[in-house]
Amino acid sequence: xxxxxxxxxxxxxxxxxxxxxxxxxxxxxxxxxxxxxxxxxxxxxxxxxxxxxxxxxxxxxxxxxxxxxxxxxxxxxxxxxxxxxxxxxxxxxxxxxxxxxxxxxxxxxxxxxxxxxxxxxxxxxxxxxxxxxxxxxxxxxxxxxxxxxxxxxxxxxxxxxxxxxxxxxxxxxxxxxxxxxxxxxxxxxxxxxxxxxxxxxxxxxxxxxxxxxxxxxxxxxxxxxxxxxxxxxxxxxxxxxxxxxxxxxxxxxxxxxxxxxxxxxxxxxxxxxxxxxxxxxxxxxxxxxxxxxxxxxxxxxxxxxxxxxxxxxxxxxxxxxxxxxxxxxxxxxxxxxxxxxxxxxxxxxxxxxxxxxxxxxxxxxxxxxxxxxxxxxxxxxxxxxxxxxxxxxxxxxxxxxxxxxxxxxxxxxxxxxxxxxxxxxxxxxxxxxxxxxxxxxxxxxxxxxxxxxxxxxxxxxxxxxxxxxxxxxxxxx
Length: 477
Ligand SMILES: [Zn+2]
Ligand SMILES: [Zn+2]
Hints:
Blueprint: H1 3-6, H2 9-23, E1 26-30, E2 41-45, E3 60-67, E4 71-72, H3 74-86, E5 93-99, E6 102-103, H4 105-116, E7 122-126, H5 128-138, E8 140-141, E9 148-149, E10 153-155, H6 161-172, E11 187-208, E12 211-225, H7 235-243, E13 248-250, H8 256-259, E14 262-265, H9 272-286, E15 289-294, E16 300-305, E17 312-331, E18 334-343, E19 346-352, H10 375-384, E20 389-390, E21 397-398, E22 403-405, E23 412-414, E24 419-423, E25 426-430, H11 433-445, H12 448-454, H13 462-476
Parallel strand pairs: 3-5, 4-6, 5-7, 11-14
Antiparallel strand pairs: 1-2, 2-3, 8-9, 10-13, 11-12, 11-17, 15-16, 17-18, 18-19, 20-21, 22-23, 24-25
Helix pairs in contact: 3-4
The structure holds zinc ion (2 copies).
One zinc ion is lined by residues 357, 359-360, 398-399, 401-402.
């Protein structure tokens, strides 16, 4: 039992329309369902689809009969033959029958005779087995329970680990004292997210008895989200897909193995027909407008002009994956993940834990009032934002409010891991108990005026401590 078996005849035609569009036929249309005249679908072949060589003449019109039956016999072939003959078209015509089943021998013989007669139309028979092959070659899985989009192509992700680590390094530059060499990738993953790059054209003219009152000629490239409910991708994702549309890589490319610890491929939620339908409806909605005009009788009229479904053509609908890359690193007790779309040499950061203080994650960098989702604004704001600081003691990345200076070594320490001590009424921060005790010992040795001065937060005590330590060491020797 396969998908094609389960379809109704009408649905089978719809699937065939998608198949033909994908094969490169132009103006693929289903015939009005008034009477079965032996043609369910009509379309044009510019010479790029059929096996005949490209000619300079007009494109070949193809008249297709779709038969969702186990067996197609000679009378069906004859009917399609005459439908091709009577088809009104000023140029070469081809007859075709597509079936989920098979053709009887007499049916095949009849079609072959017609096809081989140079005076007659070309005749093409497509049976169930041909359909499986065709489906595979154009990426439609016709036999897998749904009319699933089978897509093997992704906008090229980086294929080496160095590039991924490079992303970490540049994210690390957001942190004042985090040297890039501290940061190495502990886990890399890529998730292939389904998107569809579409090109649509609207060509509509609205006429009344006073003539044309409104016209729409518009062409648009858009990108649709391929998982979940059909919707447009965000503007920045659409720009990324559009700018990198030529840069493709097969998702089972071996070289991905070296770069990524994990690879996931998400499925396309809908079939091409559903995306196409959505696009048409969306373009109709967007171009619907109300027009006022004055009639011959001098009366003002108002008319709603909405392009019809046939005024919208989906010129291309290209399923492709967009690589969503995650690179994780660990610093001390903390794990940081960087998530970005990395495609065709471009990147679009989705989330960077390097840009958050670990002690107040929700209140991002304490910057007053910027929206966390507008990435461009964030970049602008980041210049004014207080710098995040790396705590070498525990690995935290912290905002100024959660960063102090370690009293003994003079390096930043975060409030999360620091131990504190009170000296002359001031709170001092230390990496640990040992540093606090070392400082306490040095403090005890200080003359009173030094104690006061030191505790006003002047020069780091490190030099003094080293000196004392040195003297102690010499004493021991
Ligand atoms: Zn903080
Ligand atoms: Zn810390």
